Fold these 4 entries.
Entry 1:
Amino acid sequence: MSFQPILTAGLDPATGDATWHLDDYVKRGGYAALKKIFAENITPEAVIAEVKKSSLRGRGGAGFPSGLKWSFMPKAYAGAKYLCCNSDEGEPGTFKDRDLLRYNPHQVIEGMAIAAYAMGTERGYNYIHGEVWELYDRFEQALAEARAAGYIGQNILGSNFSFELFAHHGYGAYICGEETALLDSIEGKKGQPRYKPPFPASFGLYGKPTTINNTETFAAVPWIINNGGDKYLELGKPNNGGSKLFSVSGHVVRPGNYEVPMGLPFAELLKMAGGIRGGRRLKACIPGGSSAPVLPAEIVMECTMDYDSIAKAGSMLGSGAVIVMDESTCMVRALERLSYFYFEESCGQCTPCREGTGWLYRVVHRIEHGQGRPDDLDLLNSVTDNIMGRTICALGDAASLPVRSFIKHFAAEFEYHIEHKKCLVPPEVQKEGSKIYVRPSC
Amino acid sequence: MLDIEIDGKALQVVEGSTIIDAAHQLGTYIPHFCYHKKLSIAANCRMCLVQVEKAPKPMPACATPVTNGMKVQTHSEQAVKAQKGVMEFLLINHPLDCPICDQGGECLLQDLAVGYGASASRYQEEKRVVMNKNLGPLVATDMTRCINCTRCVRFTQEIAGLMELGQAYRGEHAEIMSFIGQTVDSELSGNIIDLCPVGALTSKPFRFSARTWELARRKSVSPHDGLGSPLIVQTKHDKVMRVLPLENEEINECWLSDKDRFSYEALNSPERLTRPMLKHGGQWIEVEWQQALDYVAHAFKDIAKNHGAAALGALLSPHATLEELHLGQKLMRGLGSGNVDFRLRQSDFSQDGQGTPWLGMKIAEIGSLDRVLVVGSFLRKDHPLIAQRLRQAVKRGAQVSLVHSADDDQLLKAHAKAIVLPSQLPQLLAQVVKCAAELKGVSVDAAITALAVSEKAKAIAESLLSGTRAAIFLGNFAQQHEQAATLQALAQLLAKITGANFGFLGEAANSVGGYVANALPGADGLNAGQMLAEPRHGYLILNAEVELDSARPLQALAALKQAATVVLLSPFKLPGALDYADVLLPVSPFSETSGSFINTEGRVQSFNAVVRPLGETRPAWKVLRVLGNLLNLPGFDQDSSEQVRAEVLGAATPTPEFVTDRLANPLSDVANNVANNVAIKLDAGPNGLERVADVAIYSADVLVRRAPSLQKTRDAASPAARMNAVTLQQCGVSAGQELRVRQGEGQAQLFAVLDAGLPDGAVRIAAAHPKVAGLAAMHGAITVEAL
């Protein structure tokens, strides 16, 4: 198959850190899409139509059709409108935006400029996760380059379209990746999700119409404009257009980001990452970041990597963070770590999540530490029942889904823990699996 | 209108309503904690989850807008399961020790836990502990009980105007706290106690002193500022234990200022006077009522006989009831003296006879104004809840402009501000008049047209003319100003030109009532200023500390000291009076007497005693009535305060709700006023420093000065000499330095404080405090020297 990468085109991991600059990007064909728009007088409506045609879906996790989202922005709005890029990548297992901003920041800038043009916004912010500070610095430098070259700023490329873009960094709170919490954080408030409705398209940043997209979504836009929405869709599967970056981590030989066309079989992706380490067998996989339900090996091996196939299997493609676990993994211990994350990252605003995530963690913790009780699994399911669908944002669901899926697919392991006060997976096997892994040829 | 159905009952609601609004319209209760009708929607407690047809998940009733045809189930299985689930979460980390919680018995969480909580907890882990916070002397914290509903946070931000509380940290570690090292200093802070649905925020003065079910609830009216907030006074064993707001959308909404809420502590003060006392040979002795009253009657009769009745004067308090003021003036007039006044802090009386100053409109209408000019007011501290209404009006788009001599932060976004020396206020206001007159093409006095107009004056005039519902209010500072009449005339002229409503923000609970009761000098009588400038032989003082409450404390004290007889009717042994008075008669504070206050909008509010008088204390109206009998004066045979009130207000309408028909801010005579009665003096003022005096919020009256918790607040800090940097430099002193301040014959020792909000040449020294009672007057020239 002759797949040509879109997001990582022309990038070489070995030299990537040196080729992120504007000149390199232009050499790779960068800013052609933006130039094309003004050269060919493509209307904003036509840009949105092209993105709709491409079936590009939000790469941040929710998979909402991007063209549709863009069309929600009120056209004839008198005041300011805003465009935000969500680079607050903080979910365990997800590290794709980090590499995009590291190796190809201008592609994100170009994508944002095109989106701004399509929606008529004159001001944008890229909210960058606070734990990747060097990328914030790099993005600021990239912005300076783009500004100097006239790709952003006043009267872009001699047109009468102006777009100012700024970098904004958080301080590492996972919740600020929730789009309305991100807006509050930009406004200088404590990052806490807002109750919706109203949605950002009508009441967003500073109360003005705002569109928020993921870094990877923006990065895909220039290619769509250059090559057409149809071509993009052809790369993937119907309703699942284009290519996608998958962050493969865990017990694989070559963890890393892999750009593949949507709809690639999971087994292929696993092969690209070098397969499971040490010849062990695959036990389970979280296909879309830590909040996606876990899938056992036999199910995930049948899946293709696209929104619909993974959803059908009972999980979510999410942000494309593929966490691979082999047979040396204790599922109780893995869940304990995940539950701790959500307990620690709950914003504390609404009751079920504030109180419930701590409760979940504590019960999983006691099972892992040999103090589980026979009815603990029922209790966990009941607590997740009381959290899911009752919270302001999706963090409550995100904390509950792993718990439910781990118990659903690996109930025997949990029951063993409770009954025998120890792990089904022998400690020496676990120890072997969690050794620092040195890649054979690298 | 939208058609919806709640629990099978159909109703129509206006567009934009939420489900909880609609449910309230129907009388259906939906459990909730974070929702409050006066605060923004947070939707964080999740207690109000209800089932909405076609919605996959339960929806929060407080935040879900109603759509046409919506069908809501508030008690369906899905809704109740969700509500019970939330209740379980709320309780897992909440202490289950209601018997030792001060909120027990009046706790929303406790009440709802009965309906939605389980009898045992499935949560077996350790509970969260949250360290308590010091929020100041009024609000106690028990933060482990907090359920993070953020009502208090939203209150400080949205109603009180300053975000003094916030939620820090994340998730389970989230805590409500003030800024590090700061207390909550709002003059409305006590309301967060009412708002807190659990026992996290409770009343520091009240906590652990009684249980809610032991307390009787009695209605009363606040005796402090001109708003006249309706109160619920809670009592136990004839002792006032605490005060809560009695909700009235037209007056206080559901709020109370801290002054109204916590001043009750003074009612139980050890300074209370409980037996009549006479000074005998320089010694105070306790006597029977009969003896004391006989003494007073004889003394007054003697003075009237030997020196003429005009040698007697009555200084009444604007915090006294309508009935007391009426009988006080009637007694004086019966004795033949027209020397009666209750306006002790006023110094310009040249508008007397020109009307009865009042708000000129309903308090409730303030919120619908779109243009407001407030002249000379320490708005937030003098009228906390009127300031709150203006704050909400500004949020709705109203423009509020301020003309004043101190730029205190009113916590509302002022459209235009002009801060000038007190002596320059008339000129500044005249500039606004000139500008408005030019814009409207109206001709005004030549003295006004000759003025140069400043940018600020222009902005204010333009703002007033650009709206549809404007009002101009004169604050306490303007009413106490040396040229109050000029300010009034100019403000009235401006109101006439701009079509604005004109009114006064009444200083005290009965600032209007005093006029209605005619507690004023007649044609032959002396006003408060004259009575003290031209000392009398005998004084009758009701409920006032004249040496603190008068415009010229030094003069007042001298007049009282030289008098042959000073009779004080007061609930307290006032320390100053122990020196100058001859008779102390213990009379009831508002809690121990029936009576009426007429608030600044002309609303008559009557109340009954909530507890029995302390010791030998008697209601002042009864004391005055008996005194009238002893003096053989006619018309002192009333049997009840209601009869006295009927005498004042007219028997035909014994309880009129409003007396606005007999109040007047005479707008129609403005032109004449300016031309004939009040010469607009726009002179330069004193050459040198000028005093700016505010009456600090917790030293405004006899009662509040004795409320210990209020006296511990930052607002009760000891007076200082405040100056801006230029003035400090001009005087050669620096902030923090101790100064000697001289005014007239008097002086005081104060610390210098930098206050950037003052105009050059102004020295701001609060009045009504013993520390500054040695200064001559609330205004005028003053000198400062380093000590």
Entry 2:
Amino acid sequence: MAKKKTAYSSDVYTAILGIAAMAVFSTLIFVAVVYTSHYGSLMDAFKVTQ
Amino acid sequence: MSTITKILIVLLSLFSIFLCGMMVSFVGSAENYKSLYNTEKLNSQVLLSEAENLKIQFKEQAQKTSELETKLRQELASLQERNNQLAASLRNAERTGQEFESRAESWKGVMSGFDASVRSMLESLKLTQGQLEKARAQSVEDQKNLNQITVNLSEKIVELQRLEADRRRLLEQKTDLEKQMTRGGAAAVQPVTVVPDNAQPAGPATAASDIKGLIKEIDQSLVTLSIGSADGVEKGMVFHVTRGDEFLCNIVVTSVDIEKSAGILEMVQQTPKIGDTVTTKL
């Protein structure tokens, strides 16, 4: 069976999805770093201190 | 890949990138509430400690204030007591002042009466001085008359002594004649006995004997002499006051004691002094 030949445009859209995923991932990392620096850990921000 | 899939891929990528941007901007601009909480908590603890310190200071100040209030109340009580004492002293002083004012009024009345009596006494003194001047003038006049009478009396005494001498001389001549007649034989003729006349010429004792003395005291016109009745001084005698050869005045004796006498000045030429000589003959 002959290998189905893919179009170059599909690779472009895959790259676009990768870029979007990398943006989301980097955003999550940034938020985690910022909250960690502020509250020690992410869950400490939700602790109730008396 | 269908066209719709392509469109969804592009929209999903754009939307996710947009949301990621918003998330990053929000998180980047969010504040650190934990550090703010810690800061505010620390400030709250500091303020609580300051409040505790202020409470302690407030209690200390309240205690000091209560002590000061007690002390001031005691001082106020003592000052009120002193005020009462001063008020009592003031009342006493006012009462004393009123007493002294009444005394001053009484003394004022006494002094006014005394002033009136002094004025009347001065008037009587003036009258008395006038009378004394008149008496002195009369005394001077009387002294002049007395001196004239004394001079006349001295002349009479001298005349009497001369007559007495003539009588004695005539009696001696008579005795000689009788003796001659007796020797001449006329025995029958009785001798004439001559009774000697021992009568003394009447004259003042001051003319017969000289009495000398000194002035002991002088009080205005009254003079005290150092001689008295023991020396022959009699009331009414006139002494002449001399200082050396200078005649000063006369003294008429008005009071005589045994060893002293007193008299008043007359015919004053100069004022005599204590120690001046008095004599009955110049």
Entry 3:
Amino acid sequence: MRGSAVQRRLNRRLRGWQAVHRWSSLVCTAFLLLICLTGLPLVFHEEIDHLLDPGPTYVVLPPTAPRADLDHLTAVARQIYPGRIVTSVFRDDDEPQVIVALAPSWAAVRADPKSGRFVRFDARTGQVLERSKPPAEQRQTFIDVMLRLHIDLFVGLPGELFMATMALLFVTAIVSGVVLYGPFASKLDFGAVRTARTQRVRWLDLHNLLGVVTLAWALVVGATGAMNELSTPLFALWQRTDVATMVAPWQGKAAPAQGELSSVQAAFDTAQSALPGMTVISAIYPGGQLGSPHHYLLFTKGKTPLTARLFSPVLVDARTGKLTAVVRMPWYLRALEISRPLHFGDYGGLPLKIIWALLDLVTIMVLGSGLYLWFAKRRRVPSGIRAESDVDIEAVKLLEAAE
Amino acid sequence: MKPRPSRFAHQWGWPIGLAILTVFGLLSALLGEGGVWWWLSWAALGVPLLVIARHALFPVRQEGPRHARHRAS
């Protein structure tokens, strides 16, 4: 008697997990398929971009060649695009290039990102390598389209939050799938695929095999995917807390106009001496969404594979050129930074990317087989009796199928 | 005689082992500085794929439950 009561309770709990697994997967499957399919080319975006546009070839100079003065480069960029302000300077540490971004104003580029322009320079000779195409010739590349479908379905922040929810549902589906795997695996040897039984049993076995083998990878990529989708609100939070506290003393003072700014080259140098072990890679000009109307916001990064992902921001007074602060990165932005490589798989050379793509393909098969199993079960159970006996059938289905 | 693995090991041995390998593979390329750590990462992350290939492409004939039990069909 007692034994069967325990069994009943276990069955009830199992039914609960089955419902969680079924509904969390059903809701997110279509979007997850889209994410997996678009993720496939995105894993290789560097290679594809390079193939479609090999980019400028650099003159060969010794590594010790002096670098062009950034004040000179920004002045040239403003001559090329008169009437615009510089919004940021990016000094690549990968290739010898500097990219200067310009816009009619901060408000204009926020309202219409297409109003932005850029000039790409050789970081050593200062030669102009490329400038942004006129608006009429600007086209979205294949990778751009894949990226937007992957990240926000072309609708910005609401799309990002929606996809974050889908990623969390995916994580829920994985966790509930693991719970259901337990009773399944108690009846069969690991990896058993019963090929002689019905199509549905074979696909159930494959679904369980592929799912449980790629479990840790799928959990990591799902959770870090959700984290990446939260980057906009997390940076906004940081801006409103830590950054706001640091720039509070400047509140109410008149913001410097572009012509009154201190030297950007000096700001790079100041940040470099504040953090000698780091590489300064970019400066956001005063007035952007991040930072302050009174400061250059510079980003520096470390030199090892891990610390190269961890940015330390520095605020430099854009009127006096003095160091204001090395800004503390809160734990949630550190977590976000660690989430990026673990989601993209771009940190271990081409072989890691290929492994990423194969695991992505396996995930597509898990999603597809899950969907098939759901359809196949619905076909097996006539709809008339499904309504009342759904629970009983559900409770034993999985165990029964494992026998 | 070989001792029979416990029920828990039978259910979870492979999944836990593969999960540990996966986490090791993910971290070794991130925390290690290139070279041998990349190779270890590729090897560790390659194992789950090999396990899949082994079982999906060459399934072991296993028609019934592990513990012999008759099925009325």
Entry 4:
Amino acid sequence: MVKGTCWVADDYVMAYDIIVSEHWTSPIDPIENSKIVMSGVKEEFNRENGFKDKGYTFIVANHNFAGGGKSIEHVITGLMGAGIKGVFATSFARLQFRNAINYGLPFITCDDIHLACETGDELEFDEASGIIKNITKGTEMQSVPVAPFVAEVSESGGLMNYVRDKIAKGEPIG
Amino acid sequence: MTITEKIMARSSGKDKVIPGELVWTDIHSVMTMDFLGKQCFEKFRSLGKTEVFDKDKVICVSDHLVPPPNQKFANMLNEWREVVKQHDITNFYDLGRQGIAHQIMVEQGHVLPGTISIGTDSHANTYGAVGAMGNAIGVTDAAVAMATGKAWFRIPKSVKFNVTGKWQPWVMAKDLSLHIMGMMHWNGHLLYKALEFTGPAISSLSMAGRMTLCNMTVDLGAKNGIVAPDVVTERYLRNRTQDKWEFLNSDDDAEYDQVYDIDISDLAPTIAMPGKLDDTVTIDKLIGTKFNKAFVGTCTNGRLEDIAVMAEIMKDKQVHRDVNMILVPASQTVYLEALQAGHLETLIKAGVAIDTPSCASCAGLHTGVAGSGDIVLSAGNRNMAGRMGSREAKVYLTSPSVVAASSIRGEVTDPRTFDI
Ligand code: SF4
């Protein structure tokens, strides 16, 4: 069970704006990436730790969150470094959805959740049941359950750990 | 099953797969490039491995940063070279043999019909042009594939675009891409889907056109784009690979999430408005619009066929005095072929600057970036604020033929009505 406040994103939050191009060639590092995460999304986030200092735990979005087709993992490490524990959206851009699974950051599909939340609302997410409660508004929503493999990777702490473990044990993958 | 389902079933050792199912598949080749490659190798080593699954199948390319425009990139490239050397990688396309990774992967025969290849750059979807499944992944997936020769995938639902009709002169595959972009939008219809392009208007497309089409499927949010192999594919691959492959195709009773019929007979040159790729208009809405920079290149439109179209339109003409125009061939091979065909001479005489193969200004990282207030007519693939440099620049996306005709007039011009 994770609890905390949310930021409700506008439409079209692109991977490009979450991590702007001058940082694409930087190392993938949660602390460094979190300092500049979201800097291209909103003027108020465009300073060191601008997003992180808001202390949000969740992001709520409509369609195609982190779109624009960028495969860089800084997007996910930046969000994780900034304290984000879950992103709820009607849909996600494929590449970052995949990266999120690989890093064990819940990217949870939930239709129209952006209509049910406002920035600053307190939410509670139960990973096991997939229920997202909006404590501020007293409402709750059922999200789409995650595949067993995704849960397994998440429990291992990400794909690297999952695969490293298999290799060390000499177990086949898949 | 659809062709994508068949490829994924074969690659995962199954007779049948169904959309939604999660599988681990064999990977034919893994590509990584200059600014992410070192991190791939580091992650790969952290898995407890020192040798990659197949030295011939990990393809390393320098494209985003070559030749280095500053010291930071020079140092990154040196570290990258060191790491590639350390791992004794057979296929390293460094400065001198360079090209945009996706062009290299297809042109040098590193992707094969009926198999899966992945790359740490989003436009790996391009590989679908030869009937392969091309997929973009992050460095984590690349590291895992380098170690194990495998990657995990969810089987996507397939969407079919049945494309009929006759291409009008100067209308290109790019126009179809942008048309589909405007028709489908980014907002979810095609997210995670496998897009299959079929029909007579696709059969008549060259490999270059098929590459453009599959390339931009990533921008639609799709998982992959694919054209089933045919005689065009066979001819293209003949001298590029020794590997055996079959003419895999979708079954007649394959299931599709959606089927769209598009008749391209009336398809007009199409342009994406600055800022949003799916905000497209037909060229008549923009005739006469002024711009000051013109760019042809990228993994979308930097191929020989694109350059040939430009040369045909620009022969014995001059780029307008208010326009700076740059052409960046997609690879050294393309560069040489364009030179041998005489196209580069034609274009240089017309006042086009030719830059050495790289991603150039496409991602705003390298040469020819846009400054504040610039209005760019580009044959590239993305136009979000800041993509090509300044966030205050405006980028219109269109085909090489529109960029060529418009650059002569100094304003957006329909190549169909241009006196060539
Ligand atoms: S040409 Fe542009 S889109 Fe293609 S790989 Fe390079 S930066 Fe990416």
